[in-house]
Amino acid sequence: MTLPFRLLSACLALLAAFVAGIARADMVTIAACENYAPYSDASLPGDGFANDLTARIMSRAGYDVSVTIMPWVRALQGTETGTFDILPSAWYTEARGRTLLFSQPIALSRLVFVKPVSSPFEFHSLDDLRGLTVGTVSGYAYTPDFLTSPLFQRTAVADIVLNLRMVAARRIDLTLDDELTLRFIIHSRAPELAPLLSLTRGVLSEQPLYVAFSRTRPDAERLVAAFDAGLARMQADGDYQRLLALHQME
């Protein structure tokens, strides 16, 4: 191999790396979780409110956007490790803050319990859960006092629908999730459970919902700034409210 040829090959390799870097800088990948309507689900317009909002804002900021729907745990882990760039519809925790950057809030999530329709249970405080078994979803960021309380038992599964079926069959006493998500899933994904289940009026917590960005990406802070600026513009010009209405979240 001659020296000029080797130099040409090296230059072409550097050019290819440069072009790939530019393409990477202009592309963002979104890890969207399944079964989290109205925020995220492949069956919804725009893959759900959070994904639709994020894709619109990042597209307007000049990025090409790719959305992949997957189970929650894979979406969270994939964004934390840098396989994906953005995780819409995430709650903040201190642990997640070490691997993810968080946007301004995009919505407020009300966490309520589901019980058998004939149950007199109502939630006021954790003491009401004494002696009960509560179904949770793996990887969800429940409040620390809920996760550590010795008053009741917690069982974890991968999907809220399984928990709903176990409550209806009285294999567990309660489960919990975002109120809007529960109403959508019960009436759209498991309508046979609707006569068997009831939601509590009391809430475990009201938690802001954020869009999270992987810290592994060198321009992560710039992505967050672009998102927050786009969100502020949409809130100011009415597009945010129109998107809420489109996704029946008003």
Written account of the structure:
This protein is of the alpha/beta class. The protein folds into 2 domains: 24-107 and 208-246, D-Maltodextrin-Binding Protein, domain 2 (3-Layer(aba) Sandwich), CATH 3.40.190.10; 109-206, D-Maltodextrin-Binding Protein, domain 2. 40% of the residues lie in helices and 26% in strands. The strands form 2 sheets. Strands 3, 4, 5, 6, 7, 8 and 9 form a 7-stranded mixed beta sheet that branches. Strands 1-2 form a two-stranded parallel sheet. Helix 2 (49-60) links the parallel strand 1 and strand 2 (64-70). The longest helix has 23 residues, at 3-25. The radius of gyration is 22 Å and the shape is globular. The model is unreliable at 10-24 (pLDDT under 50).
Q: How would you describe this structure in keywords?
A:
single chain; 250 residues; alpha/beta; D-Maltodextrin-Binding Protein, domain 2; 7-stranded mixed sheet; two-stranded parallel sheet; Solute-binding_3/MltF_N; ABC transporter substrate-binding protein; signal
Largest sheet: 7 strands, mixed
Distance between the termini: 68 Å
Order of helices and strands: HEHEHEHEEEHEHEHEHH
Output the number of helix runs: 9
Total strands: the figure is 9
Q: So what's the overall shape?
A: globular
What percent of the residues sit in helical stretches (DSSP H or I)? Answer: 25-40%
**Average residue pLDDT:** 91
* CATH first level of the largest domain: Alpha Beta
Q: How many structural domains in the coordinates? A: 2
Per CATH, which architecture of the largest domain? Answer: 3-Layer(aba) Sandwich
Structural class by SSE content:
alpha/beta
CATH topology of the largest domain: D-Maltodextrin-Binding Protein, domain 2
CATH superfamily of the largest domain: Periplasmic binding protein-like II
Low-confidence stretches: 10-24
Gyration radius (Cα, Å) is 22 Å
Percentage of β-strand residues:
25-35%
Domain Solute-binding protein family 3/N-terminal: 27-250
Protein name: ABC transporter substrate-binding protein
Signal peptide: 1-25
Keywords: Signal
